[in-house]
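Researcher: Before we compare anything, I want clean individual predictions. No alignment, no superposition, just each chain on its own. First chain goes here; please echo the sequence and then give the structure tokens.
Model: Echoing the first chain and its structure:
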Amino acid sequence: MTPEELKVDQLVDPKSLLNELNKLVEKYDGDGSSFKLRSEVLTKLKSTHKEARKEIEKLLMDDGQGRRCSERLSCVQDMIIQVIYDFAVTHVYPVENPTKSERISVIAVGGYGRGTLAPHSDVDLLFLWPYKQTPWGDQVVEFILYMLWDMGLKVGHSTRNLDETIKQCREDMTVRTAILEARYVWGDLELFQELTKRFDKEIVSGSGPEFIAAKLAERDDRHERHGASRYLVEPNVKEGKGGMRDLNTLFWIAKYFYRVPNGLGLVEKGVFSRRVLNRFRKSQDFLWAVRCHLHFLTNRPEERLSFDVQREIADRLGYMDHPGMRAVERFMKHYFLVAKDVGDLTRIFAAALEEQHVKSAPSISRFLGSFVPGSKHKRRSIKGTRDFLVENGRIVAAKEDIFEKDPVNLIRVFYLIDKTNLDMHPELLKLVRRSRRLINADFRKNEQANRLFLKILTSRSDPETVLRAMNESSILGQFLPEFRKVVAMMQFNMYHHYTVDEHLIRSIGVLSEIERGMGGDSHPLATDLIKSVHSRKVLYVAMLLHDVAKGRPEDHSIAGAKIARKICPRLGLSPAETDTVAWLIEQHLEMSTVAQSRDLSDPKTIKDFCRKVQSLERLQLLLILTVADIRAVGPNVFNGWKGQLLRTLYYESETILSGGHGRMSQQQRVDFAKQELAEKLEGWSDEELDNYLNRHYPAYWLRVDLKSKINHANLIRMTDAEEEHLATAVKPHAFEGVTEITVLAPDHPRLLSTIAQACFAAGANIVDAHIDTTKDGLALDTIYISRELPEDDDEYRRGERICCLIKEALRGTAPVPEVKGLAKKPNARSKAFSLQTTVLVSNSWSENYTVLEVTGLDRPGLLSDLTTEISALNLNIASAHVGTFGEKAVDVFYVTDLTGQKVHNVGRQESIRDRLKNAFDGKKPQKAPMSSRRRPQKLTGK
């Protein structure tokens, strides 16, 4: 585009700017080498560039055209470089009679070569010589670079002659890609034209398959580094799957293989239709708008669309709140739909390339699909259908009208994918997408279509892959309109790692893995129970629909149950099965909530839970669904700790629901846990084992995982031989991003508060905690703090320093350091969220204790503040449950007054609510009186 079309001629006029610089030269009597002159020239260039960028940002805010913004920035950069070059060769290093070797061509390469530039992107330049570098050329290049650097620009540059450039292109695919996008900026035009001519003849000609293979391998590697899913809730706009680099890869391959300068050339070659090209341009424009806003907003080359910027970018792009969906969630849904379009464009492009060139260049095909290099297009039939065939390892349509004649084929084709374990040919995928309008209200009632879909959903092979293919082709949302509403829907929180539709499909994959016995070590009970489930389809249907009502004003569990009652009969489920599916969806969060935030040793907790579950079959189904749901939230969200809590809740409930005849009584499970530990402890005498196995209460044996039990046993054994029962242990967990600190100490009322204060004073944020007491008066505290240092050795030393502070505080040899400003600010990601603090005071959740549930935005020092305030309120903590779900903290305390009674006084309950809310919000808590006495504390984690 011309500067006039881009509106940049009003921002920077090279002739006018150069005239101003010429006047500065006159001011210094034509001395182009004057330091003061250079300083004034630099100041003028800086101000011009800064004002132009400000105006370009305003234009972006006005017209919202991202691609146009990048072109304006590129055009302004061109003009600045042109002025600097002309000034250098005219006034600083003039040559009256230049030789043939004293020529320079200034060439834009990389993204800048495409004529686009993000606000903080590198300016990639190639300074090209005809033969060898001359002193004059060296001086001019140095002047240009220093001017650009002093302007604050990041410049990637290389200086080569023609022969060197061609040689580098031949040896290095990165250089070859950069030169592919080379664009003349200024200087010697003839030199640039000679480069492009030689590049086409000596490099590009005949090397298409090699280039395509390299670019696609590079793409796969990039996806692996930045996240294999395009539905990660904090995507990388540039490098992530479905981002700008994927579009760039298409452009590179197209330009290299078809030798076309732009998208219109691809239409002329028959690669894209105009409609598809428009999708390409719309996707590109949107991604450029997001990227430019991201750079302008953060004032740096930020490419990750993190939580702390998503809300403001949504506002910049003009998104508004709708009932059930915030503006930021609507923006992110648009983003993920665009990422999905980018995936579609990739498949369409691959199909066209394969169709047109596989015969002449069969080696291309193995990078685009599952073709066998050099094989002929042999077709074979598929048993049970005449409408589909297999060609070169992929399913193809027998005729173009197969969907018009029998729309059920739109579901059948995915059933065949599952049955044959073959991929769909991209041309068939295009036909499927074009035909999806055939799925209407009447189609959705078709018994055969519903029967086939249920077979896909409950497949014993790999239902996740097939359902994802259905979703990518938009068939799943067309067949289940309720599912379509959550496609690409993001939940604006730090707990969920994927969009809602991706989470649902992943949860089906996890459920299938559990059924096939994969990963049983992390959830052995679910793996065992699923073998005896009477109705698999109930479980799979509930799993697919459990979050399908997200984004509605009504609670998604209740609304989801209503949706299930409409869909299940259509899928062929009986009334009883429909009721079970609806109940599972309505209660799908219940087991997780109770296990992670209630005292499982309290009989009323178990009784209330059983009152909701009502039957052993429902308990089994709910346990399996809960495990799969948590595991599908994101990597490592499900852990051994949560698994142990769920198993404990299951076994306690099973005993009641089976009339006291559960598969294992509590005592049997305790005995089993003891025996399991005894077999793992090496070098212990029989007497030592007997004594140790009797030191813990039953709750410890039921709640703690085996690995932790072994570590605890060795730690206690070591301190038994010492005079002081005080020891600590540190273990960094790199993948989880936390560091585990274990503290063994004599139990006393303020133990938890002291440890929490010491961690806070050391700058450690507690995200999880677990404390048990032994029968002989020891407390075993396991605290998880946020990791700060990348290397395990460094983080271990940090943990040791925190342990020293804890020991000094517990011994009383040194007071806990005061922390100025009670509450540290949340980190940048947490700042993006706003959660109202709520405090519930309930006497109905436990028969013996008042339960305090405090919920709000997590922050460093929170547990320290809450436990200190509870001490100041003269409350005894019987047990506590610390939970962190992304940015949300849910802390539950089981308390009594100093006489061991519940808190019944309404006025005191109100005071507790107010003071805990103030403590949660970071207002200074009261110090506990020295006379306060509390019962020993037992703290369980999430």
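Researcher: Okay. Second chain, same rules.
Model: Second chain and its structure:
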Amino acid sequence: MKEFSSLLVANRGEIALRIMRTAKELGLRTIAVYSDADKTAPHVKFADDKIHIGGSPVGESYLVIEKIIDAAKISGAEAIHPGYGFLSENSAFSKAVNEAGLVFVGPPEHAIDVMGDKARSKRAMIKANIPCVPGYQGEDQSDERLIDESMAIGFPIMVKAAAGGGGRGMRLVFNDNDLPGAIQLARSEAQNAFGSSELIIEKAVQQPRHVEIQIFADTFGNTIHLGERDCSVQRRHQKIVEESPCPVMTEELRARMGKAAVDAAKAVDYVGAGTVEFLLDSLGNFYFLEMNTRLQVEHPVTELVTGLDLVTLQLNVAAGEPLGITQEEVTLNGHAIEVRLYAEDPENDFLPSTGPVTLWHEPQGKDIRVDSGIQTGSNVSPFYDPMVAKIIAHGETRNQARLRLIKAMKSSALFGLKSNRDFLIDTLSQQKFANGEATTAFIDDVYGEGGYKAAQQEIEILAAVAVLKFTLERNRALAETIDLNQELLNWSSTGKLQSVFSFMRGDETVQSTVTALGSQSYQVEIADELIDVDDVNVDGNCATLNVKGHGFDAVIHEESDGNLNVAIGNTSLLLTNASRNSRTDEGNNSGSVKSPMHGLLLEIAVKSGESVSKGDKLAVLEAMKMQHEIIANIDGVVAEISAIAGNQIAADELLLEIGPIAEE
């Protein structure tokens, strides 16, 4: 037995909080570690003790093994839980924890070593007779060899970082022209994210489902699986929606995939929680993808359908206890669906968004679970992953869980920065998803080449928002008035009270005129329509109202500049006063090339005086663990370069100017 009474969580955000909650329930003392950027983060406030470990970049804090070990010694921690990401699949970290006389809540060093490397793990799985995707996982890492192997395999192919996951260091390639650039980007991203530039090549399985099996093993030789999760809805090879069970799963297929996952774990003498990921095609064939030697982001859906606390199981196994449950005792009850709330802009290729959270209003509803790493007043940093919360719904049936999750998401709001809230609601509402037909090609299939674009706000929604703005301004004036008779609300001796507000809808400015008809009744003129709005009630950040007889709930937050954030139904929007918030929009065809987000400028790919064409790579920016190419929108000549590679760049900061091509 390796009993322990204190636990250091070598992570941050929602997973650190989630682990600490269970640890505290078990009576353990919890210790948080934090960087400069996380000094006031929720996980730091929640812990019993906290230790500062360095600067904001992960290379100065969360990825520095020595600092984590020192923090454990200083705080008197007896065990370390790595969470997911960061050092969770680093065998050197596991070894260092054990050598320091501490308990590592995770698998043995050997299992991490083998399964944490896509090349080695694939070779091991082939030896263990686990079905694998055809590919190349050899030691020769020259560009020439990778290109030759890709040509032999046949396009499309996947270029993947051997040492990592989560979509980083991964590129889908359809032809030989794009292959050299994909290899270069994948190498660079893999080196920065995982400290290894080793790559593997795999045949791209077209439109499969991404189905993974949760396994658990103890030190007594017991290895079981806890059913599957379907994680097919992804962007940039990173999961967005996960569910359990898989919509097309059968008992026979679950038994085969479960056995393969258990065999994979036994092949590396696995201990603890792990996930074996497969690609499942339409014929029921499945292929080993990778094994994550840690707790998964999406573990809550398994917890909700099995009734098991996976962190409790992890801590028990780490303490040397048996699993206490057999394969026959594992039952799956109902259905659970999880969505990941990201600070990103779905309408701009899901680019990360950073900045302060001016309001975080958690989703509400029956059988809803929220694992969040933010609160109102938090700051979403460019140094870490953009996922800020997970929202999970459980129901007796898949459709019940789906509808509950949609309703919960509609009750939520994240203001102050861009998020994928509206996109998640739209995704859950798509008929293809409702029918359980989503594959890894879901986003391309549903949203097409142009990607997701928010639906144009209905006139009724704009009218509702205009009335909410009117109500807030009236209430503010009322608060400054002494002894006003309530019967005189919205009444003026000069006639009916009216206010004019403007919205931006795409590139179009929409003007609305709100006329008060009574204390809670209004008429809104907008786009040549007259819309009745009544029964308006505002209570803090929550509001209810009727528009043309239909009831709406809304979450609202007014900024200090008077702009109004509103989340109503499946729409999040910002109401601005055009006269106070006008500015020149240089547009996409401007010669001014600005950074689309805060990040590290890795490369300036052009020189002053160089001719460029639309579509040429100008620079490479790293933000939230991903590398993003900045592309020229116009033809021209690089006139001036303002930024320096290697520096941190703010959002909207000028990188370079493209001037016109000189006439001969």
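Researcher: What stands out in the second chain?
Model: The mean pLDDT is 90. Additionally, The radius of gyration is 27 Å.
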